[in-house]
Write a structure and sequence with these properties.
The chain is of the alpha/beta class. It is built from 6 helices and 6 strands; from the N terminus they run E-H-E-H-E-H-E-H-H-E-H-E. Helix 1 (15-21) links the parallel strand 1 (2-7) and strand 2 (30-37).
């Protein structure tokens, strides 16, 4: 059985992750899809993952939505997954393993989401200010290869998936989205303040 997990950004999974999954042949293997989102909503992400996995020959027997800290406004979902989440997700795993031999393929009608998937606007794109010491950690750790070692303060907007990995690992706290952050935090407040739960569909 395969477990396919992807992060959710603005209700979709990154095209980078979808493209990588597209190179893996399922050969009719059973699989569980896991969408990890930042305490707002996963919108069409699980359905998109289901469609890609099925198209590549996997038999999806279960789907999980799991809550983590929001990647941009980290106050939302702070500290998650916590011990309660871990216990719940372990319970999901046990239920899947116990029912694996008798589990039917999950029908797409049971997976939340809509087709066509929601349109996603690119950004915000993190850049560095003058406190950048050019250590290169951002470039070395960017999963999309969007930061060039020749221009460490900038980002390639065509490649960036706005995961904010570079912001999280910057030792000088030089990278960020500047004045956009407070406005985004305020806009997300009614959507992200309440604790969201993990879900298992099987």
């Amino acid at each position: 059985m395969a477990v396919i997990a992807m992060p959710v950004f603005v209700g979709r999974v990154p095209s980078l992750a979808v493209n990588r999954l597209g190179h893996i042949a399922g050969h009719n293997a059973r699989c569980v899809i896991v969408a990890v989102y930042g305490n707002r909503a996963y919108d069409d992400a699980l359905l998109e993952m289901y469609d890609v996995a099925t198209c590549n020959g996997f038999r999806v027997i279960a789907a999980i939505s799991a809550v983590a800290e929001h990647s941009i406004v980290r106050a939302y979902g702070a500290g998650r997954p916590d011990s309660k989440d871990r216990d719940e997700l372990l319970g999901f795993g046990r239920r899947i393993l116990l029912g694996m031999d008798s589990s039917d393929v999950l029908g797409s009608h049971r997976v939340p989401g809509n087709r066509p998937y929601r349109n996603v606007n690119a950004g915000p794109f993190p850049t560095a200010d003058e406190s950048c010491i050019a250590c290169g950690k951002c470039a070395h750790n960017c999963p999309a290869g969007a930061i060039s070692e020749d221009a460490l303060r900038d980002v390639d907007k065509d490649l960036c998936i706005s995961c904010m990995r570079c912001v999280a690992i910057c030792p000088e706290h030089s990278r960020g989205i500047g004045a956009v952050l407070p406005a985004l935090a305020e806009r997300l407040r009614p959507l992200c303040s309440a604790r969201k739960g993990n879900e298992l569909i099987m």
